[in-house]
Amino acid sequence: MADNLSDTLKKLKITAVDRTEDSLEGCLDCLLQALAQNNMETSEKIQASGILQLFASLLTPQSSFKAKVANIIAEVAKNEFMRIPCVDAGLISPLVQLLNSKDQEVLLQTGRALGNICYDSQSSKEQFASTNIAEELVKLFKKQIEHDKREMIFEVLAPLAENDAIKLQLVEAGLVECLLEIVQQKVDSDKEDDITELKTGSDLMVLLLLGDESMQKLFEGGKGSVFQRVLSWIPSNNHQLQLAGALAIANFARNDGNCIHMVDNGIVEKLMDLLDRHVEDGNVTVQHAALSALRNLAIPVINKAKMLSAGVTETVLKFLKSEMPPVQFKLLGTLRMLIDAQAEAAEQLGKNVKLVERLVEWCEAKDHAGVMGESNRLLSALIRHSKSKDVIKTIVQSGGIKHLVTMATSEHVIMQNEALVALALIAALELGTAEKDLESAKLVQILHRLLADERSAPEIKYNSMVLICALMGSESLHKEVQDLAFLDVVSKLRSHENKSVAQQASLTEQRLTVES
C-alpha cells in the first residue's frame, strides 16, 4: 500500500497539471482508499509530497473532481497538523466559492472540509476572517430549505463564529434575522429535526452575542428588534428558548450601560418569574443561566438597591437547597454582588441562620473549589458590608470563624485581604464571642507567618498588623502574641518601601511595647 501511495502521489502531480481525466480520477480514488485505511500516515505523506497546493486548481466550479478533492481535504483536515497547511495551500477561497454549487455531494464535502479545517484552530479562523466566507455562508443559508443542508452549514458556522471578527461579519451579513426566523418557525413543533434546529439556531445566536462589538450592535441601546425578540423568549414555555433567552441577557449584561437600561426596563422581574418556574425539580441549565444574568445585572452600583427592592434575594434564596455546584456557584456570586456596600441587605442576609449554615457547609466543599471560594467570600462580605454584631454572632454560632481564618491563607491576595478585613471587624466588635474560635483556628500563628513571609503583599502585611492590634483586647490571644516574638517581625517592617506598611509597623510596635 505504501509504495502504491507514493506512486499515486507522483502520478497525481503530473496528471493534475495536464488533467488526464481517467488517470486523475483513479489517483483520487486511490488516495481516498489510503485515507480510509490509515488517515494519519496518509495525510503526512500528502503533506510531504506538496500536492495540497495542486488541489486548489481542482476545486474550480468547472472541475469534474471537485467533490472528491473536497472529500480528501475533509479527511486530511481531521488531523490537527493538516489544518494550517490546508489554509497555507490557498484552499479556503475555492472551497467557499463551491458553497454556491447546486450539486448535493459537492455541498456536503465542501461543508465537511471547511468545518474540519476551522475546527479548534485559531490561526485558520483568522485566515477565514479575511475571506468573504461569512457573507457566502449566510447567503447560502437563506436559500436552504432542507434540514440536513442547514445543519451542515450550522456545523461550519459554529466554529467560525468563535472568532470575534467573523461574529461581526455574520451579524452584518444578516445571520441573526435568519436565526430569529428559524426560532419562530420551529418553536411549537415537536418534530425531532425542528427541535434540533431550534437548539442549534438559538445556541448560535447566543454565541454571536459573546463578541463585544457584535453584542453592542444587536443591543442598539436596548431598542434593537433582536434584543426585544430575545426578551420574548424568557417567558416562553420552551426550555431551550428560556435557556437561550437567559444566556443572551447575561451576554447583553456585559457593560454598565446595558445593565442599567435592562434593569430600568423590567428585565429583573422576567428573570425572577423564570426562576420561580424552575424552583421545584427545575431545569438546572435554565437556573444557572438566569442566575448568571442576575449576577451580571447586579454589578453596577445603581442597580443594587433597585434589584434588592424588587425582591431578588428572596427569589435567589429559594435555590439554597440546590445540590448542583454550578447553581450554588452562581447563587453565591449573585448574593455577593447584591450586598456590595448595601449595609441593610448584608445585615438581613447575615442574620439568616439557614443561609449562614449553608455557607459554612459549602466552605468545606473540597471537590468544588469555585463553590468553596465563593462561600468564603460571601461570609466575609456579610461582615464587611454590614459591620453588624448580630451578623458576627450568627457566623460564630454557625461555626464560620475557622473558615475565615483559613481564607486568610488563600493563594489569592484579594481573598486573603477580604478575610483579614472581616476578622479585624470581628475583633473590634465581638472579640469576646469569637475568642475561642480564633484561638483554636490558630489565627495568631497564621498572622505571624504572613508578616514574616517576604512574599506577602503590602496590603496583607498592613491588615495583619491592624488585626494584631485588635486582638490585644483578649487576654488569651494577647498572651499568644507575646509568646511569638512579634516585635522582631514588626520592627523590620518599619523600613518597608510601602509608606502605609511602614507607618502601621511603627504604630503596632508602640502598641506591642506598651502592652508587653
Automatic annotation (TrEMBL):
GO terms for cellular component: cytosol; endoplasmic reticulum; mitochondrion. Keywords: Cytoplasm, Endoplasmic reticulum, Mitochondrion. It comes from the Eukaryota. InterPro entries: ARM-like, ARM-type_fold, Armadillo, RAP1GDS1. Its main location: cytoplasm. ARM repeats lie at residues 90-125, 266-298. One of its GO terms (molecular function) is guanyl-nucleotide exchange factor activity. It is found in: Cytoplasm, Cytosol; Endoplasmic reticulum; Mitochondrion. This is Rap1 GTPase-GDP dissociation stimulator 1. It comes from Saimiri boliviensis boliviensis (Bolivian squirrel monkey). The lineage of its organism: Eukaryota, Metazoa, Chordata, Craniata, Vertebrata.
